[in-house]
TrEMBL record:
<feature type="domain" description="Fumarylacetoacetase-like C-terminal">
    <location>
        <begin position="70"/>
        <end position="274"/>
    </location>
</feature>
<dbReference type="InterPro" id="IPR036663">
    <property type="entry name" value="Fumarylacetoacetase_C_sf"/>
</dbReference>
<keyword id="KW-0479">Metal-binding</keyword>
<dbReference type="Pfam" id="PF01557">
    <property type="entry name" value="FAA_hydrolase"/>
</dbReference>
<dbReference type="GO" id="GO:0016787">
    <property type="term" value="F:hydrolase activity"/>
</dbReference>
<dbReference type="GO" id="GO:0016853">
    <property type="term" value="F:isomerase activity"/>
</dbReference>
<protein>
    <submittedName>
        <fullName>Fumarylacetoacetate hydrolase family protein</fullName>
    </submittedName>
</protein>
<dbReference type="GO" id="GO:0046872">
    <property type="term" value="F:metal ion binding"/>
</dbReference>
<dbReference type="GO" id="GO:0019752">
    <property type="term" value="P:carboxylic acid metabolic process"/>
</dbReference>
<keyword id="KW-0378">Hydrolase</keyword>
<comment type="similarity">
    <text>Belongs to the FAH family.</text>
</comment>
<dbReference type="InterPro" id="IPR051121">
    <property type="entry name" value="FAH"/>
</dbReference>
<dbReference type="InterPro" id="IPR011234">
    <property type="entry name" value="Fumarylacetoacetase-like_C"/>
</dbReference>
Length: 287
């Protein structure tokens, strides 16, 4: 299944995507995060009772989980990216958090802050938790996954480097993206087989197999669940491969008018144009 959250006629809806239609299920559960707590089988059973679909062309795609309790992002988790940044190997994954309002959905504009000209792209695989757990063994970790999506973990590099904490550079309003939908785990199988591509203005800038992660999806779930309970709807952004703009000669940063895309085999393509933030704190996107 492809599960999506949309804005339709001014109302947030969610449901199952089939072609260019969405079969809504918000009459059963208020949002996708809540539905995931009851499991994918319950969602499939409820879908049988839906008789009317909404045309996606009349809707705006939102992040699949607009209200996650946690978004945990992994830094320097591909060997190729570790090598281009000159970082040393570490025994544990580097983890920082992203706030829900730092992401937009597919087709929406990401916002380049007026405070920086070092707005960098990062294509990633997002893992969405479906079954709660603490101290999850790596061997059991994929049983806790609801599905996968595309994620643009874009960074404002100078703010990221202000201290040894990445949080400021990763949480400018509407600087990243998540979508276009969640593809359920049963349709993906082993996430290590997925191919990840990042494109800027149609030109390929990043490519890697997810199998080249330093810390695999099961290892990330096992480690994260050792210190916090993972809950339905929680999101793990698994890291970006080599090719980021700050390590190019000359550097390649995003600017207004650019378009950044994240494509993952078996999932789809997340597309976001870039706009400038308006000085004074308000950006040019209707909220």
């Amino acid at each position: 299944m492809r599960l999506a959250t949309i804005l339709h006629a001014g109302t947030q809806r969610w449901g199952v995507v089939d072609g260019q239609q969405l079969w809504p299920l918000d009459h059963v559960w208020p949002d996708l995060r809540t539905a995931l707590g009851d499991g994918l089988d319950a969602i499939r059973a409820a879908l049988v009772q839906v008789s009317d679909a909404l045309p996606l062309e009349e809707a705006r795609l939102l992040p699949p989980i607009p209200n996650p309790e946690k978004i945990l992002a992994i830094g320097v988790n591909y060997r190729s990216h570790r090598e281009e940044t000159g970082r040393e190997a570490t025994p544990y994954p580097a983890i920082f958090v992203r706030f829900p309002d730092a992401q937009v959905g597919d087709g929406e504009a990401i916002v380049k802050p007026f405070l920086s000209d070092r707005f960098d792209f990062e294509a990633e695989l997002a893992v969405v938790i479906g079954r709660a757990g603490r101290h999850i063994a790596a061997a059991d970790a994929l049983d806790h996954v609801a599905g996968y999506s595309c994620f643009a973990d874009n960074a404002v590099r100078d703010f990221q480097r202000h201290t040894n904490q990445a949080t400021p550079g990763k949480n400018f309003d509407r600087s990243g993206a998540f979508g276009p939908w969640l593809v359920t785990a049963d349709e993906i199988g082993d996430p290590a087989q997925l191919e990840l591509v990042g494109r800027l203005n149609g030109e390929e800038v990043q490519r890697s197999s997810v199998g080249l992660l330093i810390f695999s999806v099961p290892e990330l779930i096992a480690y994260i669940s050792s210190f916090t309970t993972l809950k339905p709807g929680d999101v793990i952004a698994t890291g970006t491969p080599a090719g980021v703009g700050m390590k190019r000669t000359p550097p390649l940063f995003m600017k207004a008018g650019d378009v950044f895309q994240v494509e993952i085999s078996g999932i789809g393509t997340l597309t976001t144009p870039v706009i400038d933030e308006q000085k004074g704190g308000a950006d040019a996107v209707d909220l």
